[in-house]
Amino acid sequence: MSSIDDVRASAKKGHAVDVGAANNIETLGDKKKDHADILGVLLIFPLVLLASSDGALLVGNEVLIMADLDVNVVIFGLLIGFGILSGGIATFLFGYLSDKSSRKLLLVIGGATWSTATLLMSTAPGVEVLFIIRIMGTIGNGAITPVVFSLLSDMFPSEKRSNSFAWWGIASLIGGLGGGSIALAFNRIPFDTIPNWDKLDLLVKMQYLQANYPDLVALWRAPFMLTGILGLAFVCIALFMKEPKRGGRDKQLREALSKEELHYSYKIKAADLKYIFTRRSNFWLIFNFLDVVVSGFFIANILLYIQVEMQFSFTDMESISQVLLMIVPAIVLGLFGQFYFAKKGDKKVEQGDPAGRVKVAIIGGVMHIPFFIIAFLFSPFKGNGTFFLGSLAVPGWGFWIMMPIAGVVLGIGLMYSFAIAPNWYASLIDVNLPEHRSTMIATASFLDTIGRSFGSIAGGLFISFFDSTGTHYSISLSIIWMTIIFGGISGLMWLPIYKYCNRDFAYVQQVLAERGRELSERARAD
Asked: Is residue 227 within 8 Å of 49, Cβ to Cβ?
């Protein structure tokens, strides 16, 4: 029997992996496992969906919280940024624990912590207490991410990994939209009727809202209470999930681990960390976190962008309809890209191209940039009836034409942008052994949170800078420049990933094939 070092040497030489004909045979046990895993997904899906609303719930209430608790945009950016950072630290810790402990237990702990903190948010008397509770909540929320990724990697066959992570993306998107919708349902301030709104700076706008709408700005507390209560209920549902076998859906281990008495017994060791962090594919995959800087900024300021810069009101049906004309086509095209490019990445790998998912991610990482820039150059401003940073005046009916056009351009950008995540996560799983995957996903997610945190904090500084120049379009200009700077650098960072992934993919396949044979021999001996 070959040692792991022998297998590593063989993989480096590019030797083929013999996974055996039995891997292509679908058995009755496989079907039962499929049904059990589908049930498991359904049991954790409500909690995942609700936890995904966390960021949108806070951002959706940004204007109200800033006005109610007298918080400026820089402090709010720090609230989001430090929350993301603390969540990232929790992600790293719980990712490591997921490779050693019961993932079901860790999911329950994380979900209960987040739900409790969300409920307590509704009682925060000031920004200091809000900071403390928010950090507690993001620690719980950050714990959920690596645990769920680890569970998903063992609930879906390895041949469909990108597609499984596309579903995670959908859950995140639906959760985000749901959180935003819940938040907006309690935002009743008529922004479109406030006189000379565009002539006030941001601080004066918040003071105006506090002075004139004190009862309405306090309504941000209700959605946090509702979400916290639902979260605790969904944690109870997740308790009924049966945890899948670690590595049981990898094609090299599937046959052996279909036997109830056999388990994948390898656990991560401290000595493994040096090796997995210095593997070149891992290094470039986890350190390419600049692609989320812009999304971190935009998520933190989307409501500020719609209500303050674009001056659309969510109390007026015309405003709501026009915003939806931009958002709906953008979301539809983004969802299409999420699944289309995920399946395309899976198909390339099935056809024998280990770098197939990386190639698809590179296309998405580069192609979304120009469409994002063009989309935010549209910069509609309902207050004075203009587009393109105030340079194009349109009549009232012009908004009904221009908004869907802007939405389509933004949607094409999202279509390419959404191609990145499922293929990125699947690639990270591909080049790591089952006992290392949660740790690597957690590390990557942690660095992603740094990217989003940096985007939130840097975005607040960008807005402050452009706001000081007297322009009304400080958010649009910030997004455009951040896309150019950070999106461009991120696109270049995919090139070394493409260079090294084939070798690391071959190594992992060889090791799993060797372990699959070991498990099969053990089963026959028993």
From this structure: no
Domain total of the chain = 1
The per-residue pLDDT for 444 is 79
User: What is the secondary structure of 32-58 as a DSSP string?
Assistant: HHHHHHHHHHHHHHHHHHHHTTHHHHH
Task: Report the C-alpha gap between 219 and 394 in whole angstroms.
Answer: 35
Domain membership of residue 30 (yes or no) is no
CATH of the domain at 289: 1.20.1250.20
pLDDT at 36 over 90: no
The C-alpha R_g of the chain, in whole angstroms, comes to: 24
What's 381's DSSP letter? B
Q: Could you read off the pLDDT of 417-436 as tens digits, one per residue?
A: 989 888 888 888 888 888 88
Asked if residue 446 has pLDDT above 60, the reply is yes
Q: How far apart are CA 410 and CA 402, in angstroms?
A: 12
Instruction: Give, as one character, the DSSP assignment of residue 159.
Output: G
The b/e string for 192-214 (b: 16+ C-beta within 10 A; e otherwise) is: bebeebeeeebeebbeebbeebe
Q: What is this structure's pTM?
A: 0.72
Residue 168 in domain? yes
Tell me if 358 sits within 8 A of 501, measured CB to CB. yes
Q: What is the pLDDT of residue 32?
A: 57
Kindly state whether residue 367 falls inside one of the protein's structural domains: yes
Taking a C-beta distance cutoff of 8 angstroms, is the pair 291, 364 a contact? no
The region of weakest confidence among 217-231, 445-459, 495-509 is: 445-459
Residues 308 and 467: beta-carbon distance below 8 Å: no
- Residue 382: give the domain boundaries: 4-18+44-241+279-525
Give the pLDDT score at 363: 92
CB 47 within 8 A of CB 111: yes
